């Protein structure tokens, strides 16, 4: 303690003896205090950090989109976390979503708080949002903050893809059949969407597929199975999409999963020959039918002409007989 007091007194003696050094130190301390004060008083954004799109089924499409009721996101500008700063204008930008496009949303400002209302909406609402508020502050005219709409993994399919639930209670477990010609490459899709972006893993008969196996290649979440043959039809290829997020802002993270089981149906490379033969046979039958109808029509017309000629001859003979009698 005595040694520390001696050091402090020595520093004070130096500052007293050198006014220039004393002025520099005083200016530095004053500048630091002002910077700290400005940092403390600098406006920042606050709001409800996240809401959850409560998906009841793990399948959606553009033709039959899944729906859920969302409340709203809100944010406001503040300096201390207590009061709200006056808001000139506000907007929300959806910077991350399943479609990959940035969307602009106009905010509704009520009592200096910006609101983004959703109501009944589709999975496209899930993603990351940026709230941008313009405030009346010369130092920081704009305040921004990030908000989130969480959604567990679901599968977004088109009209050509058919997914069947494994059973009625498995709302996030589906199965699908993919047809492929023997020897070709089968492409098994995993159209998982959600926020945070789901992590996709592929399994074969519940065992992870290793990337070192040249027969299987994963490209953008889709599995390519090379040189498909009959033994491949016995196996089940599963796409498992997972993400994690808290149901409440301060709650623990929970893991969510959606599963899509693929089954392969292999056909011969000459499988096209059977429908071609059927088409040729149908064309031949159609030609025979048309030719028969035309021939029958001509035959009936010829028979009609013969009957008309015979009738005319009989009438002429009768007239000739009448003349001879006279």
TrEMBL record:
What the entry lists under InterPro entries is as follows: Ig-like_dom, Ig-like_dom_sf, Ig-like_fold, Ig_I-set, Ig_sub2, ZIG1/7_N
Protein name as catalogued? Immunoglobulin domain-containing protein
Per the UniProt entry, what species is this protein from, by scientific name? Ditylenchus destructor
Q: What keyword terms does UniProt attach to this protein?
A: Membrane, Transmembrane, Transmembrane helix
Which Gene3D superfamilies does the annotation name?
Immunoglobulins
Q: Does the record carry Membrane as a key word?
A: yes
Spans traversing the lipid bilayer = 270-296
PROSITE patterns per UniProt: IG_LIKE
Location of the Ig-like domain: 153-250
